[in-house]
Specification:
Blueprint (H helix, E strand, L loop, with lengths): L1 E4 L4 H11 L2 E3 L1 E5 L5 E5 L7 E5 L5 H17 L3 E6 L18 H11 L3 E5 L14 E4 L2 H8 L6 E4 L5 H11 L3 E3 L1 E6 L2 E5 L9 E9 L3 H12 L4 E9 L5 H4 L5 E5 L7 E3 L2 H7 L1
The structure holds ribose-5-phosphate.
Length: about 280
Amino acid sequence: MFVVSGSTHQRLGVALAQETGAEFCGVINKRFPDGERYVRVLRSVAGHDVTVVQNTFPDESIVELLLILEALREAGATSITTIIPYMGYARQERTFQSGEAISARAVARPVGALSDRVFTVSVHTDEVLSFFGCPTQDIDGLQEAVRYLKGFKPGLVVAPDEGAREWCARAAKELKAPLHVMSKIRVDDRTVETDSGKVKVKGLTVVILDDIISTGGTIASAARLLKNAGAGQVLAACTHGLFIEDAANRLRVCDDILSSDTLEGVYTRYSIAPAIAAAL
Ligand code: R5P
């Protein structure tokens, strides 16, 4: 088996090859003067099973992924398994107003058409899986987060909104800590209002857990309330850390910020490679 990574996941691709005993296969990846992309897979994959690792975020990664998949098909790979650690566009899995695109479907269809199976990691909603049109599985990235968080011995797990209740409840159970769920109203793309309700946090190490941190508004709002209520330490943990715009600044209220390598960055503290290897 070969593992091929696009440019979003060189390190994760190598780690995955090591975990699974596969060979890592490099790709020449360049741009033409007009900005169009060129890829060339550097090993002969004819007759081999190939696993491809690449996000569909940012936008240009989608084209890169499609070119790699097309190259592998052209070269005669026996089977292609596509791993999308962070699936960009998964949050628009339906239309909210007339005239909109179901963006998740627009991205999933061409990827699924060139893949024999697709794995996502803690995808925003399972509904997007059917859009690929091939066998799919969502890998639970939470396990790796929980394993990492155990070292902090948190006294409370906080879900920053109702949407996070289910995975925070699972994490709280495994961390043997109580769960507290806050309520959140999204005012606009960058602003949220959070109501913490009654919560006793004096001196506790508290973990706020979310699937995605984007602008940091959700976590910052929850963290401020916890700090004001007397929390000892506030940790923010997520699977997918986008940290866009001035997220780092907004999140200064947190004592520590932890994310996985589905999006590699300065807050990446743990890898989801073991979870992917186990699923494969
Ligand atoms: C929302 O449904 C997600 O679970 C996250 O809470 C959201 O994407 C976080 O966004 P931000 O960091 O911009 O508040």
